[in-house]
Specification:
The chain has 606 residues and is of the alpha/beta class. It contains 22 helices and 10 strands. Strand 9 (567-572) and strand 10 form a beta hairpin. The longest helix is centred in the middle third of the chain and has 54 residues, at 227-280. The chain is elongated, with a radius of gyration of 35 Å.
Length: 606
Amino acid sequence: MPSSRTPKKENSLREYKALLPYLSRYRWRYLGGLIFLVAVDAAQIIIPQLIRRAVDIITEGSFALRSLVFTALWMIAVMAVISLGRFFWSYFIYGSSQRIEAEMREKLFDHLLTLSYDFYQKNKIGDLMARSIHDLGAVRMSIGMGLVALVDFAVMASAILIIIFIQDARSAFFAVIPLPAITVLILLFGNTVGSRFLRAQESYSRMSDTVQETFAGIRVVKSFVKEWWFEKKFAHTNDDYREANMELAKLEGFFFPLVSFLSGLITVILFLVGGRRVIEGSMTPGGLVALFRYLQMLIWPLMGAGFMVNMIQRGAVGLHRVNEVLRTEPSIRSPEIPAAAPARLSGTAASAVSAAPAIEIRNLSFAYSQPGEVLKNISLSVPRGAWVGVLGRTGSGKSTLIKSMTRMIDPPAGTVRVFGIDVREWDLKQLRGLFAVTPQDSYLFSDSIKNNIAYGLEEAEEAALREAALREAADISALERDLELFSGGWDTTIGERGLTLSGGQKQRVALSRAVALKREILILDDSLSAVDADTEKRILSRLLKERAGKTTIIISHRVSSLRHAGMVVVLEKGGIAESGSPAELAAAGGFYARTAALQQLEARGG
């Protein structure tokens, strides 16, 4: 599970091992970019020599204009090479870093889709988005601009130091006296920037969480007039993010001006030492100008070393946070050798499978991480084609029972079987492909009504068959009468999470989506709670005909939703308190009977 621990300094750079496959894939692009980058550095080093030549020609007093023109043409040619080279190294190096970032983001997204239900209970969406965007952006900068700064520091700084010592060793010796201090500053800067950047990234994650949570629940926020509270909460996280970045900015604001000052001292020292050498006749004026130019050029590699350390440390922190997610394994996965699924469930299957119940639960007990069992010794057999109802108070374990069937949670081995096979032995994709589930939270996507209903259908299916399936599903869920109320009909785009629909419309769109799949087992988890009694009756009667021969499980707080069930199971504190037909339970005088009587009184009173 991702954590907020700061990576140890000795281990932080090891995170870059994860980039080796990407760097290997783009090695020729990087190599081409490095060749052009080195060529640009070499061309820039030539410029001061041309300036030296021009100054020396002028200071001699007698010269031909043709000599200056020739030197100027050489300078133009060199500058053209520099401009062209900068384009190509930017294209190859920055382009490759952008491609790697995109591939890593896609890999991270794909991996997130494989992680189990419990992962998203422990990790906030805003933090995951920050890792997918902000942290990967830091990685891109480290293998893009960071690499450029590293090469500039290694190539240009080394070449310049060699040239100035060859040209005038005495002046160069005095001029580079501040370099050790600059080196120490760079090392100190690298040791502190990583931890401060990590704090800034974590602050950004918390701010993203606040924004995502606020706008996802904007309807509730406005209903309770709590805008002021969320404004206060966002202001707090925003201030924390600002303070974390200000700490980083103070560090950078102290470091870079100080390095610039020390670099300027090099120029002052050269002015004093080199000027005296010119007066003594030991150096030409052009040579002094060339040294000035070289030392000005040396400032960027020295500053670039600071940028390099900054970006590499930021990239290491970002990569650490991304790798934490990538290293997280799904807690629920398919077995290495899944059990062979029945060749054909909706017809003449093997005799053993035909005889097996659609769902069989044997002595199932389950607890989440917190103390106390949510399900206690549940035993239940659901025959193929049966219509089963589940009733119980809030927190009685109804939804957990359903999650154990689809293996959204992992039940103990041998406790839950689907068509005679332990759910832990099924291939997950095949197992969940048997179910169509409408959860309590009718989640809809910000898309058209048609696409929301067609969400689970195969793309390759013929358009005519696809359209017919959608129409049939909408008719069963009594949604077709509402379509004419929408300006775009089928193609009406609904807001995020279905904000533009009423509660009943959201439930019926979600029900249509499940019915259109025509799966072997349909589970309705309190999916008609926002629908009026007449519409509920109409839906259930149509659903009963459409689901003939297939298994249907209805979870509901309303007894009226269970009237067609062949068997109703009543859960109480995680265990089965009652089971039987609706008529048997009504006569038994237990929770079912009391709930039915109370709801009848409420209906008459309404």
